[in-house]
């Protein structure tokens, strides 16, 4: 995700686009059913994935060998910000990485399609908040941190969106979430060059083809 300790930073050139209308809900249709309707990635399918999917559906697609290769899947998780809440009500760590991965996917591909504007950024940022709250479950402190610390910082990042909309693929090649970041997307083994704090950069199979 686009955090740097807690302020988030991006620096891209100006670009004006319009928002596309929100599609209908999934009902019983899975993401794989929708993306399988065409051999090419497009804004409609992208919008379904980032706005109308549950976090579980997105995470399932991220780890799937059938995920569309024409989208950019690279993610550095939650960057330098904390990627987890220490404990849930059962004493288990709450990982925010799935929500951060979907947020990276959203920003990156909206920029690739020239659709990173204020409205679409707001929807993507709201999905990050919603995903973090879903992961927090009934834990009130976890939820408060997600809503009142992470979310406001995300909203401040890359503002105005029109000045941060240029897509720079060469700068977004690290992929640090496993499974999902190696050629075998379902394999939990780490791959690529070692990074800071014991992370690995992935094998660049996350890049759009």
From TrEMBL:
The keyword Signal applies. Pfam families: Phospholip_A2_3 (PF09056). Residues 1-19 form the signal peptide. One of its GO terms (molecular function) is phospholipase A2 activity. Coiled coil: none annotated. The keyword RNA-binding does not apply. Keywords: Signal. It comes from the Eukaryota. InterPro entries: PLipase_A2_dom_sf (IPR036444), PLipase_A2_prok/fun (IPR015141). GO terms for biological process: arachidonate secretion; phospholipid metabolic process. This is Uncharacterized protein. It comes from Tothia fuscella. The lineage of its organism: Eukaryota, Fungi, Dikarya, Ascomycota, Pezizomycotina.
């Amino acid at each position: 995700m686009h955090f740097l300790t807690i302020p988030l930073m991006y620096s891209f050139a100006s670009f004006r686009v319009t928002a596309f209308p929100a599609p209908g809900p999934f009902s019983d249709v899975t993401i794989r059913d929708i993306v399988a309707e065409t051999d090419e990635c497009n804004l409609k399918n992208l919008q379904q994935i980032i706005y109308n999917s549950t976090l579980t559906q997105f995470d399932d697609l991220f780890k799937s060998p059938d995920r569309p290769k024409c989208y950019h899947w690279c993610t550095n998780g939650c960057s330098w910000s904390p990627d987890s809440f220490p404990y849930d009500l059962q004493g288990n760590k709450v990982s925010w990485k799935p929500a951060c991965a979907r947020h990276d996917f959203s920003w990156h591909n909206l920029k690739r399609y020239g659709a990173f504007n204020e409205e679409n950024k707001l929807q993507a940022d709201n999905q990050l908040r919603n995903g973090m709250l879903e992961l927090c479950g009934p834990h009130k402190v976890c939820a408060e941190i997600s809503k009142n610390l992470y979310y406001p910082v995300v909203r401040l990042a890359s503002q105005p969106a029109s000045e941060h909309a240029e897509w720079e693929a060469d700068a977004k090649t690290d992929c640090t979430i496993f499974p999902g970041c190696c050629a075998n997307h379902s394999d939990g083994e780490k791959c690529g060059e070692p990074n800071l704090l014991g992370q690995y950069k992935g094998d660049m199979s996350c890049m759009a083809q």
